[in-house]
Amino acid sequence: MFPDFTPRPHLVVAAAAPHEKLVAAAAERLDAPVPCEDWTVRHLVEHMMTWTPVLAGSGRGAPPAARTPRAEGNWVATLDAGREDLVAVWSEPSAWTGTTTMTASELPASMVGTMVLCELVLHAWDLAKGLGEPVGWDDAVLGEVLEAMQQMAPQGRGSAFGDEVPVPDDAELLDRIVAVAGRDPSWRP
């Protein structure tokens, strides 16, 4: 049984806000390391290019088959357009109701929407760390994402998320979020 994830369509636009600038900067630094084990910026953007259309389709109830795109040609425009679609879909409250699929399994739509929200924040942080760029969100967004990550991460340990990294109880919200996801908030390239 899955936890009851709170629909948060009102946060999707804010969670995605840093992506356009970071993805543009990534075009010049594809070989830079990121906090995801053994990954570079290239691996991360190709991961995002793979899953962004699947997650957008999931919000419509009909995800396309996952493909394996490459960060070649005009990939920045492709990823930007995909992210705009993803944000538009998951900003609609109706996307968060009922069930949907990502691949073959049926899941609560609110769980997939929660994954989208968390992935937008985590992957922006990953890119920012790898590129040495600042990134941030207001505490209203981060507080909701932390709550969502605390529900979601235990289910994804060993696959989507690593073991939780210990941080002080008074750590900043963003540090607590990435720590719950199994990333070291103090990671440096």
Helix proportion of residues, in percent? 40-55%
**What's the overall geometry?**
globular
Q: What fraction of the residues are assigned to beta strands by DSSP?
A: under 5%
Rg = 15 Å
Strands of the widest sheet, in order across it, are 1-2
Calculate the mean pLDDT score and round it: 93
Biggest sheet architecture = 2 strands, antiparallel
Order of helices and strands: HHHHEEHHH
- First-residue to last-residue Cα separation: 39 Å
Number of strands: 2
What is the count of DSSP helices, taking H or I runs of 4+ residues?
7
Which runs of at least 5 residues are low in confidence (pLDDT < 50)? none
- Structural class computed from helices and strand pairing: mainly alpha
Task: Explain how this protein is built.
Helices cover 52% and strands 3% of the residues. By secondary structure, it is mostly helical. It is built from seven helices and two strands; from the N terminus they run ααααββααα. A hairpin with a 4-residue loop joins strand 1 and strand 2. It has a two-stranded antiparallel ribbon with strand order 1-2. The radius of gyration is 15 Å and the shape is globular. Helix 2 packs across helix 5 (109-131).
Write the layout of secondary structure elements.
Elements: H1 12-16, H2 19-26, H3 41-60, H4 75-90, E1 99-101, E2 106-108, H5 109-131, H6 139-156, H7 173-180
Kindly summarize this structure in a few lines:
The protein has 189 residues and is mainly alpha-helical. It is built from seven helices and two strands.
Defining key terms:
189 residues; two-stranded antiparallel ribbon; 52% helix; 3% strand
